[in-house]
Specification:
GO terms for molecular function: hydrolase activity. With 259 residues, the protein is an alpha/beta fold. It contains 7 helices and 9 strands; from the N terminus they run αββαβββαββαβαβαα. α1 runs antiparallel to α3 and α2 packs across α7. The radius of gyration is 17 Å and the shape is globular.
Length: 259
């Protein structure tokens, strides 16, 4: 069955795009009944032909990338039965976790920072979306259809405090969901058992910010859970293997309870 998944992706995107394309990359081998980790904001890559008009230092900050989720997702994908699907451009180039017609797909500003290079004509904006957003979601849809994972883990990270709000965020990890809270309830319990400060629909609400999971999971009844790690944890290289192992264990527990 894993071969069938590969064949479908090759047919859709070509062999060269199977693991890495402009829009996405796939790490590990998806298997039916396994776990798929999806990270929309894993990369801070800006293609050479795109000028965002921002200070390059901004690309290392949370407005450009979910800090820590790339290495954590890669470590998770080393476990048998787990694969990771990641966005391959910065969220400032194209934000995959938005509805296609949302203004935020090609953001003009983020957390108080203007993105002047994204002040595009309607034609250029549509070209940007067609180049990145559409292939990303087409590939993810094909992968989910063929692999049929038992659980999708939407993995993100969040800054301890926003520049536009001085109030610090106390949660070490947040669990997000929309209508389907089956796996989320397991994750909240398990994370609290790990001694973590857990936010239920914090620091944002999955009812309001859940576009990728709404599109690919809620709409099809696929079990999923949104996990948000605070970046001062996720960004610590020495902590990443332990966080990855913990998340795999929690995901597996959720799968067992959902059976």
């Amino acid at each position: 069955m894993a071969g069938r998944v590969e064949a479908q992706l090759v047919a859709t995107f070509g062999k060269a795009s199977l693991t890495t394309s402009e829009a996405f990359r796939l790490i590990g081998t998806p298997v039916p009944g396994g776990i798929l980790v999806v990270s929309d904001h894993a990369s801070n890559r800006v293609p050479d032909d795109i000028d965002l008009g921002v200070d390059p230092a901004l690309l290392t900050q949370h407005v450009a990338i979910d800090i820590g989720v790339d290495p954590i997702g890669q470590i998770m994908a080393e476990v048998e039965g787990v694969a990771t699907f990641q966005g391959n451009v910065s969220r400032l180039v194209c934000d995959f976790n938005r509805d296609r017609d949302s203004a935020g797909v090609v953001p003009l500003a983020s957390d108080g920072h203007a993105i002047p290079g994204n002040d595009l004509s309607p034609e250029d904006r549509e070209a940007r979306i067609a180049r990145y957003f559409d292939p990303y979601h087409t590939a993810l849809a094909a992968l989910l259809e063929e692999a049929n994972p038992a659980l999708v883990v939407s993995l993100h990270s969040f800054t301890p405090a926003l520049a536009t709000c001085e109030k610090p965020r106390p949660w070490q990890v947040g669990v997000l969901y929309n209508q389907d809270d089956r796996a989320a309830r397991v994750a909240i319990r398990q994370l609290e058992m790990e001694g973590l400060v857990v936010g239920d629909q914090e620091p944002y609400s999955g009812v309001l910010l859940n576009a990728t999971m709404n599109r690919h999971c809620e709409s099809f009844g696929r079990p999923y859970v949104g996990i948000e790690l605070r970046q001062d944890m996720a960004g610590r290289e020495s902590w990443q293997p332990g966080l990855a192992r913990m998340l795999v264990q929690i995901a597996r527990q959720a799968v067992r309870e959902l059976e």
